[in-house]
Specification:
By secondary structure, the protein is of the alpha/beta class. It has seven helices and seven strands.
Length: 171
């Protein structure tokens, strides 16, 4: 099965179906990967089209801190979410400033963060589809106008010329 959302859960201390449990009963299809090493995380980032990377506090305290900003920069299409129960508000803001999509401090807030990111992606995708449809409609209208055997022009409310077809332009 091809899952639209692939989620990497990177924890150095937890190996379980953590994400499957908190995302149960959601209305989107997802596949999760649980990893506990930088090598596994790097492999999946490079070889899978991941939607999300969820890091927990153990990653922050136990790996080289340059790994995080490097990957936030390399994988701009991936939403990085920090799951950290014990961070202060200032620390959360620092991590958000670094480029994390969100900082979650409970199961519920992590679920909400992922749902919010998915909703944002759907809105963006819909917007891009609408833009593409609008572009195609405009191109079709231009094609029709340019092949009508009459000169056509249009003006704004102040009677300024706004455009015309090819026949009118060459007349």
């Amino acid at each position: 099965m091809n899952y639209p959302y692939k989620i990497l859960y990177f924890s150095l201390i937890t190996e379980n179906d953590f994400l499957e449990i908190i995302l149960r009963n959601t209305n989107f299809a997802f596949q999760t990967y649980n990893v506990n090493s930088v090598q596994e995380a790097n492999y999946l980032l490079e070889n899978e089209s991941l939607s999300f990377v969820v890091l927990d506090e153990s990653v922050l305290t136990n790996i080289s801190l340059d790994w995080i900003p490097k990957n936030l920069t390399l994988y701009k299409n991936v939403s990085f979410i920090l799951y950290a129960e014990n961070l202060s508000e200032t620390e959360c803001i620092d991590w958000l400033d670094l480029g994390f999509s969100d900082v979650a401090n409970s199961f519920l807030s992590l679920k909400i963060s992922i749902k919010r990111e998915i909703r944002t992606r759907k809105i963006l995708e819909e917007y891009q589809n609408n833009q593409q449809s609008l572009k195609q409609s405009s191109q079709f209208l231009r094609l029709v106008l340019d092949h009508v055997p009459a000169g056509i022009f249009w003006k704004d409310k102040k009677s300024r010329y706004m455009g015309c077809n090819k026949l009118h332009a060459t007349a």
